[in-house]
Design goal:
- With about 575 residues, the chain is α/β, with parallel strands linked by helices.
- It folds into 2 domains: about 500 residues, Alkaline Phosphatase, subunit A (3-Layer(aba) Sandwich), CATH 3.40.720; about 80 residues, Arylsulfatase, C-terminal domain (2-Layer Sandwich), CATH 3.30.1120.10.
- It is built from 15 helices and 19 strands.
- A 10-stranded mixed sheet has the order 9-8-7-6-10-3-11-13-4-14, sandwiched between helices. A 4-stranded antiparallel sheet has the order 16-17-18-19, covered by helices on one side.
- It is globular and about 65 Å long.
Length: about 575
């Protein structure tokens, strides 16, 4: 299979580089006072690169979408929102139907950027709970205990670019993307923001105006003072990514690029020309969409065996029981959500068109994943209800001065046949759509149900680039090792097991804990629940049958494995809330 010829060549070139030797550059110090070396002088010798054919090394484009559902794109069963650009890449590549992330944005991104667990990376909790204050593993930013993916790629001679949501630190000089290996970056620093430029009388999302920066964006290590009047997040991210990619088009160095758009994360805000694109498309309601999406997933070949497709795993009030006023509101929120997803795909198509026209697409691996399950909860963000500068009237929804979420019913439909959604350790919160498109794809419409994790992306990229973990870590002996495993072999053998049945994967976020081991999974709630539940996700991917009574010894064994990991990793639990 010709896909892996560049990979095998890279392994040979890596051996040559190791024989030649590499120098050490000046270290870069972050705010924890530890040194991280981010340069590899041997790979900076351009004449050596040319001689060894380094210009043939593959590029990498990593795409991380925000709060999308498992079936939102067509290649994963969604026929209601046109996503032709992502669909084409997915169907040319390998769709990963058993790919897992964390329960929310920041811990997933920390695992992606570090190749290990979110606690090791410093994001034990996205929220600032008192129990975690000043505790190691709960720093709230990507710490120097781990080497980041862009740091490793930059040290190996790659251009490194990002445009989109960072959410891993906002301190210039220590925790911004440029401090962690990105050569160029345009980044949203917190977890959310308005998609348009903020008006003077509109505070940033979730905080009083005095609490955070007016402009929550940085570029190349500098916090921005202002945004263009015509700013819209998705378009701005694509514009910046194209700017960065074009700047090195004639370079002999390959690129690693991370495109991490914020849309369709709340608030649902839509460009005027996209406002009416889906008017009337969701009049039948979220129960009907749930049935359509589940059948679409079956038809697309991404539906897991043995899932429960007989119903929608509802958290919301059934559509038939809603008042007409509530139906109108819900129809509109899904119309706006669909517009944001369709617009995102169309804008992303500009990046693919550029790569194709510049002759770089055939030498670019593309990896896509979402950061967590879809966002449920109430249609309106209740934190905003007291502010009279928001106009959440039905006819005004989607404009810059509105604040609305897609709503629980649509989230149920987006995550089906899996249980629950964002913020939950059940499959609906942590199993997301993902795919990898190889170089010059020869086959199409392939899938793999092998268990894979977001922390596996770093070692996969390094594997395909011919980069050894020791190349960087030998100069930084205090770095934590990579926990993830490369899934590059799936491109040749989609049925191969990446994580064996004896390989436990223990995770936690803010006291919400879970562990995968082969087909088995245990999970327990956050501060108010110490009861572990046991599921077999192969036989029961919808997690409808709890098996702790049938298999008490297995449950005890898996809990002991988790406890050992928690003790070694410094995982803490919060006190239960006061009744």
């Amino acid at each position: 299979m010709t896909t892996f010829l560049p990979h095998k060549l890279l392994l040979l070139l890596s051996c040559v580089f190791l024989l030649i030797g590499c120098g050490q550059a000046d270290p870069v110090e972050d705010n924890s006072g530890q040194n991280v070396s981010i340069q590899n002088e041997a790979l900076q010798n351009e004449s050596m690169q040319n001689e060894l054919g380094a210009s043939k090394r593959p590029n990498f484009l990593l795409i991380t979408t925000d709060d999308m559902g498992y079936t939102d794109i067509g290649a994963f069963g969604g026929n209601d929102i046109p996503t032709p650009n992502l669909d084409k890449l997915a169907l040319e590549g390998l769709r990963l139907t058993n790919f897992h992330v964390s329960v929310s944005c920041a811990p997933t991104r920390s695992m992606l950027m570090s190749g290990t667990g979110n606690h090791e990376a410093g994001m034990g909790s996205q929220q600032r709970y008192a129990a975690f204050q000043d505790q190691p593993r709960y720093e709230g930013y990507l710490t120097s205990r781990v080497a980041s993916l862009p740091e490793r790629m930059q040290a190996a001679g790659y251009h490194t670019y990002m445009a989109g949501k960072w959410h891993l630190g906002n301190t210039p000089g220590s925790t911004l993307p440029g401090d962690r290996g990105f050569e160029r970056s345009f980044a949203l620093m917190p977890g959310s923001a308005h998609h348009f430029k903020l008006a003077d009388d509109m505070p940033p999302p979730g905080f009083p105006a005095s609490a955070v920066l007016r402009v929550p964006y940085s570029e190349d290590g500098q916090i921005l003072d202002d945004l263009p009047d015509d700013f819209y997040s998705t378009t701005a991210y694509v514009d910046k990514m194209l700017e960065y990619l074009k700047s090195s088009e004639s370079s002999e160095q390959p690129f690693f690029a991370w495109f991490a758009p914020t849309a369709p994360h709340w608030p649902l805000q839509v460009l005027p020309e996209w406002m009416e694109t889906f008017r009337g498309a969701y009049d039948a309601g979220y129960d009907a969409l749930c049935a359509e999406r589940q059948q679409g997933a079956i038809d697309a070949g991404v539906a897991p065996d043995n899932a429960d497709y007989s119903r929608c795993p509802e958290e919301a009030v059934p559509w038939s029981e809603l008042s007409e006023e509530d139906r109108q509101l819900n129809r509109r929120t899904m119309e706006l959500y669909a517009s944001m997803v369709a617009h995102l795909d169309a804008e992303f198509g500009r990046i693919i068109t550029y790569l194709e026209q510049s002759g770089q697409l055939e030498n670019t691996y593309i990896i896509y994943h979402n950061d967590n399950g879809p966002e449920g909860g109430p249609t309106f963000d209740l934190r905003r209800s007291e502010h009279d500068h928001f106009d959440n009237s039905l006819e005004n929804l989607g404009n810059p001065n509105t604040w609305v979420n897609v709503g629980q019913g649509w989230s149920d439909a987006q995550s089906a046949p899996f249980r629950e959604d964002k913020g939950s350790s059940f499959e609906g919160g942590t199993r997301t759509a993902a795919f990898i498109r190889p170089l010059n794809p020869e086959e199409s419409e392939r899938t793999s149900s092998s268990l894979t994790m977001v922390m596996d992306i770093m070692p996969t990229v390094m594997d395909l680039a011919g980069i050894q973990e020791s190349e960087f870590d030998s100069n930084n002996p205090d770095l934590l090792p990579i926990r993830g495993k490369s899934f590059a072999a799936l491109l040749d053998n989609p049925s191969q097991a990446i994580h064996s049945a004896e390989d436990p994967i223990a995770l936690d976020h803010a006291g919400l804990s879970w562990l995968h081991q082969g087909d088995w999974k245990i999970t327990r709630g956050a501060a108010n629940d110490d009861n572990w539940q046991l599921f077999n996700t192969k036989d029961d991917p919808s997690e409808t049958r709890e098996l702790s009574i049938e298999h008490p010894e297995l449950l005890a064994e898996l809990v002991a494995v988790y406890d050992d990991h928690a003790q070694a990793t410094g995982i803490l639990r919060r006190e239960p809330p006061t009744p």
